UniProtKB/TrEMBL annotation:
<feature type="domain" description="Transcription regulator AsnC/Lrp ligand binding">
    <location>
        <begin position="6"/>
        <end position="74"/>
    </location>
</feature>
<protein>
    <recommendedName>
        <fullName>Transcription regulator AsnC/Lrp ligand binding domain-containing protein</fullName>
    </recommendedName>
</protein>
<dbReference type="Pfam" id="PF01037">
    <property type="entry name" value="AsnC_trans_reg"/>
</dbReference>
<dbReference type="InterPro" id="IPR011008">
    <property type="entry name" value="Dimeric_a/b-barrel"/>
</dbReference>
<dbReference type="InterPro" id="IPR019887">
    <property type="entry name" value="Tscrpt_reg_AsnC/Lrp_C"/>
</dbReference>
Length: 77
């Protein structure tokens, strides 16, 4: 299982609705509004890196109000 944090920038005033919508996507385990350079941070999981990429590109980035995402896979050393 691959876990990742997805850092999300939104249009002004859209962070709350984006977080609520993203949290409903299967594979997203948590999404919260934050302050700073990103507006929402989500945690996601998928069976593989390819599946994670598909989740982000086809589902997360399709949410209205998102302007940019940065996906950070979790690593274990």
């Amino acid at each position: 299982m691959v876990h990742a944090y997805i850092l999300i920038q939104t249009e002004v005033g859209k962070s709350s609705s984006v977080a609520k919508e993203i949290e409903q996507i299967p594979g997203v385990t948590q999404a919260e509004d934050v302050t700073g350079p990103y507006d929402v941070i989500a945690r996601a999981e998928a069976a593989s890196v390819d599946d994670l990429g598909k989740l982000v590109m086809s589902r997360v980035q399709a949410v209205d109000g998102i302007t940019r995402t940065l996906t950070c896979p979790v690593v274990h050393f």
